[in-house]
Amino acid sequence: MSKVPFTALSLSKEVLKSIEEMGFEIATAIQGEAIPPILEGRDVIGQSGTGTGKTIAFAVPAVEKTDTGSDAVQVLVLCPTRELCIQVAEQIGKLGKHKKNLRALPIYGGQAYDRQLFGLKRGAHIVIGTPGRLIDHLERGSLKLDKVKLVVLDEADEMLDMGFQEDLEKIVGRIPAERQTVLFSATMQPGIKRLAQAFLKNPLMIKSTPENLTIPAIEQAYMEVQRYQKAEALSRVLDFHRVKLGIVFCNTRIGVDELVEHLQARGYSAEGLHGEHKQAMRDRIMAKFRSGTTEILVATDVASRGIDVKDVEMVVNYDLPKDEEDYVHRIGRTGRAGKKGLALSFASGKDIFRLRNIERFAKMKITRRAVPTLDQVESAQHSVVLDKIRETLAAGGLDRFHAMVDTLIEGDVTASDVAAAMLKLTLPEAQTREPEQFNAGREGGGFDPRDRGDRSDRKGGQDRGGYGDRGGNIDRGGNGDRGPRPDRGGYNDRPSRSDNVAEDRPKREWKNKPASKDMAEFEGATHAKLFINVGTLQGVRPKDILGALAGETGIPGKAFGNIEVKEKHTIAEVPEDSLDTIVAVFKKVRIKGVPVKARRAEF
User: Please, what are the domains in the chain?
Assistant: First the structure.
């Protein structure tokens, strides 16, 4: 189908204005084919994967068909997960921004009933919900569906996989038979066909071809990495590409928790997301990720559908997904809103054959790529510092610093010597390291699984083979000044690694740090406000403070709340029960070379 502008789809001026403000001009294939028949009142089956714009395809007609003169629920959208439920509600809210008095209400498990009951009592025109919580409200009598005229089943295959068929039948059974039903699914498994036969009348079938399952802006590659080498490879990848916002997928909850602990120990601002977290914790984690306080989100497939963060630069499949469709959903988290994205997968052994199956399924090419070498990582970090220097020179305002340099220039000392000394203080020390092992023995830079290298002489995390040392921004006294990590400028000290390379988990021996606490202690914990005497004048960012808090205390990063960095100080929300411990630990910490003074905020 040729490209169709939204202005050619007979939409109201209010909706067109909203679409324009959202930055859309041309409808995607699924949008151009689905919106007209849905507006006409036809039942529609849309086979469409992630990244194809299917949410807009049904959200636009939902907004257009709503009569705001009535307070009754007129459109019901069913979603498999709370994350997708929230995303759809946000899209409908944006599309209905200029339609007077339009109210859309998300209803999902984990959220307080009071808020949902208030919204339903007030009157919601469009309800977006998960099956379980919708049934709860139906049984309570707080949700009435007798006026619903449009039902949308989003990600219907996922709902069937999660065992929601009976719930769907119970919900749809409460809706008048004279209704319009729209179903979207990434696959057309037998269960979907039976569902369509039961709920839809003479539906129009619209299919998005496999070529459209992925976004052309996503560059896809894989690296041949053995299991015990994944953590080191991931660190190099993140440093080389200077990732500011990325998602790493693991297949298990335990894998997520272990990798988050490992990344935090290496100085990254990382959080985990999986099905064991309560909704309040999920919301807090996602808020920190969207704001950029958290750089790396490590997640199971609970996050592969329904999370729309437009600035995600990279997706890494730390573990390859179990099937091809999950791969498509995962990588669809990057390259959104027309931006470029990178999807990398770690693979070895039988995983290579699974990648070939994915290529055939989605009709795309996943190219092989070498893990960045140590020299490449260091070069990338150095280029960041040089770019910042050029920007500072262009900005001017250096007069008082020129005077300081002039006091150092005497005898054989030149301005070039002074600049070189400053770079030596800023950049990591060049380290004597063992021969490069990661790319040895394989054509094209693959890993040699037989060569793990001798790690026995690596002390205190100092010798990591030159891999982007993170040690300079916080000086604990006695640990050595290792220089800052230039591309992040945050809390970057790296602990020593355990000799157990099979598990590759950090061995924490920091003198000031108490034993790591179980995350269960912090579920629903009360927060206190902590005052810290560093701010933007010292070049501090929220992620630097979070790294220091988590790294020095052993408290998981997700336990902390908002971090507000002011010009001369920072206010951080920390667990109330841990505040005194944090204050005590921070007496021996430096951030950006400044001795830290921390205390309970008095305002």
Answer: 4-212 (3.40.50.300), 218-368 (3.40.50.300), 519-600 (3.30.70.330)
